[in-house]
Amino acid sequence: MRDPRERAGAVQYLELNGVRTAVEVHGDGLAVLFIHGFPLDRTIWHQVVAPLTGYHRIVPDLAGFGLSEPSDEEHGIAGYADDMSAVLDQLAVDRAVVCGLSMGGYVAFDLVRRFPKRVVGLVLVNTRADADGLDARARREEMMRQVRERGTSSLVDAMLPALLAPETVVTMPGLVDALRAMIGSASPTGVVAALRAMKERADSTPLLRQISVPTLVVAGRDDQLIPVDQSRAMAERIPGAQFTVIPGAGHLAPMEQPVATTRVLGEFLESLV
Ligand code: MLT
Q1: Percentage of the chain surpassing pLDDT 90?
Q2: How many CB atoms are closer than 10 A to CB 187?
Q3: How many CA atoms lie within 13 A of 168 on its CB side?
């Protein structure tokens, strides 16, 4: 029987270095690769991907999230970027606009760093370029310990309040429930691998000045994890980058404000074709 998290017919399974990886693929045209954040899955993009007809939309679950099997614990951000490049290979796509949310943005930076010819445009949503400091690294270690001991449900209370704008928590109880289920169903192995990958990720700040493709930076006005000023400063370092703030959005603009997020993304993509 089909997994209820699949949407009829849209999910394909690709074998990436022996790891079964789920990818949703829709439409034709300019390819756009959507990379989700932590500890989430590809469904965070659903409300944005559906209306963006006219593009070849590629929406994978990173290893260990959603319907994808976990990889080993040492995977690293480079491992996810290699996976994304392999997804493009298997779909016979040479180049794509890469759209990453938060951890997906860390993966997008690595694609720009190591596969620059594949990236024709960049959308950085609710993400940051700098690496973890000492405190953040210690928090990752503590989360890894808790997930190993108590599973991913331990992440729900630790993360949920910070992911959403305070207003969203009140106005969108259905979204709160959906996120609770999504986080709780992530594989502990996948979550620990992602925490380690984020803890060890490189500082991408020096890369910003070298980004030469059209770039859109999207911030949530009420993002509690990445303040708007930090996103604006990141955009200012990227030559020619556009910067947009979405009102009423926290760290998950595509879910909290899908209409506004789709509009800015659609306008940006239109400017590329
Ligand atoms: C995410 O949304 O992907 C995470 O908040 C990123 C992080 O923890 O650094």
Answers
A1: 89
A2: 19
A3: 29
User: What average pLDDT is seen over the chain?
Assistant: 94
Quote the pLDDT of residue 1.
44
Report the b/e string of 109-132 with b at 16+ CB within 10 A.
bbbbbebeebbbbbbbbbbbbebb
180-212 confidence digits (pLDDT tens): 999 988 999 999 999 999 999 999 999 999 999
> In this structure, are residues 269 and 32 in contact, taking their beta carbons and an 8 Å threshold?
yes
Alpha helices in the chain (DSSP H): 46-49, 76-90, 103-114, 134-150, 153-163, 166-171, 173-184, 188-199, 205-208, 228-237, 253-256, 258-270
Place of tokens 């992530």: 186
Q: What is the pLDDT of residues 137-191, one digit of tens each?
A: 999 999 999 999 999 888 888 888 899 999 999 999 999 999 999 998 899 999 9
Q: Phi/psi at 236 (nearest 5 deg)?
A: -65, -20
How many whole angstroms from 213 Cα to the centroid of ligand 1? 24
| pTM for this prediction | 0.96
pLDDT in tens, 215-253: 999 999 999 999 999 999 999 999 999 999 999 999 999
Question: Which atom belonging to ligand 1 lies closest to the Cα atom of 225?
Answer: 5
DSSP string for 10-39: TEEEEEETTEEEEEEEE-SSSEEEEE--TT
> Closest Cα to residue 196, out of 124, 87, 103, 98?
103
What's phi and psi for 58, nearest 5 deg?
-120, 120
AA letter at 16 = L
Ligand 1, pocket-test mutation among 41, 45, 103, most atoms within 8 A of CB: 103
